[in-house]
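stage 2 :: seqdesign
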């Protein structure tokens, strides 16, 4: 089974469905992206749980970057920037030791207390 993401007019994922594999031909249909798009009236793009196409599995709210042909996760913090690998990066690297959470108000990492 294959998975397909439906996109709104801003290339934001609105739904992900399970569908036919790309190599299946049923009743002469062999382009499943186009077929599913025609059913919904929305653009449809294949996604993969194995992350072997389009960088990562699409989820609702993800953005499809057509030029790079990748899905980009929503950004959690306004201070973070998108790197050349299409991953969100904080203004400063996460410390290595301990468990840290990003504090957007302080624009820094805050260590979680030990339990």
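stage 2 :: out
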């Amino acid at each position: 089974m294959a998975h397909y993401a439906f996109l709104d007019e801003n290339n934001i994922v609105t739904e992900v469905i399970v569908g036919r594999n790309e190599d299946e031909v049923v009743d002469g249909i062999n382009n499943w992206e186009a077929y599913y798009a025609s059913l919904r009236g929305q653009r449809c793009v294949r996604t993969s749980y194995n992350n072997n196409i389009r960088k990562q599995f699409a989820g609702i709210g993800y953005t499809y970057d057509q030029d790079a042909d990748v899905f980009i996760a929503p950004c959690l913090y306004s201070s973070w920037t998108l790197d050349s690998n299409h991953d969100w990066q904080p203004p400063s690297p996460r410390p290595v030791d301990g468990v840290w959470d990003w504090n957007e108000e302080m624009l820094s990492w805050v260590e979680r207390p030990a339990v």
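stage 3 :: structure notes
- Residues 75-115 form one domain.
- The helical segments are 32-40.
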